[in-house]
Amino acid sequence: MPFPKTNIHTLEDIYSLPDGERAELINGKIYNMAPPNRIHQKLVMELSGTLREYIKSQHGSCEIYPAPFAVFLGENTPNYVEPDISVICDKNKLTDKGCNGAPDFVIEIVSPGSRKMDYSTKNALYSDFGVREYWIVDPAKERTTVYRYEEDAAPIIIPFSMPIAVGIYQNLSITIADTIAELLE
Asked: How many domains does the chain divide into?
């Protein structure tokens, strides 16, 4: 009995997508991405701005990249993802195409269609490939799940109303509710 044929996709398939269509490639499988909603985009903008201002005020060298920004994880079977926010501190990872290797800090904003992807698939991927810190910001549940993979600790779930310490920085905390207060009312 023959085995069922499986399609293993490559980066060529990602680069062949029609203009305006976005997808991610994880372990040979393509995941289409729906356009983000207004709360999603507001969170991306505000969190990126907060991180950027902090880094500038500290004369830091890390760089912030909001989606769409290509992150390539793995060498032999590359995975292509577009985290909502990537913080990269090692400039040797940056190329004109994106980031080759794990960002130091990744934030994903949960959308109705991305829940399983953000909590499961990407969580495992980011852990396996060396992301230091991963936040899953969930507007529907008004909470953030924080993973600090370097510490090998259990995730922490923090309501939007509480400050979240940014693990890769010594003295930065962010209260999500403050960034989108008018949208949560």
From this structure: 1
